[in-house]
Amino acid sequence: MSDFRPLSAQFSVAPQIGLDDIAEARAQGFALIVNNRPDGEEPTAPQGAEIGHAAAAEGLAYAAIPIGHAGFSHAQIDALDALMADATGPILAYCRSGTRSTHLWALARARAGDDVDAICNAAAKAGYDLTGLRLMLDALAGGK
Description:
This protein is α/β, with parallel strands linked by helices. The protein has one domain: Protein-Tyrosine Phosphatase, Chain A, CATH 3.90.190.10. It has a 5-stranded mixed sheet, sandwiched between helices. Helix 3 crosses helix 4 and helix 4 packs parallel to helix 6. The protein is globular, with a radius of gyration of 14 Å.
């Protein structure tokens, strides 16, 4: 059973998806799948190429913005911003637990000037705690 958790009307996150989740993502109206998990992180999980091929077979776009142990960078936030700007419909992002995907979305939204309390509330509603990122989110939002 798919575990897609909405953060906004246009962006949801999920723990590691399987190939069978791709058809469900299409059925739920997603247009793009974003992989935030580096290939090889978990060798038994479907790797990026497998997910990408399955997404293409279902008519979904696929992109990878891997986030490893080094953490987040402005380049990764830029990449997500570009994908969100160009998306033709809702986005589903995934990683091992959904946390990195949620964090990347939160950083991008804060940098775009969204209300940080609203970002944190959306994440909490989806089961993700942004307390550890709060200072960074506030800094990126520039007090907006």
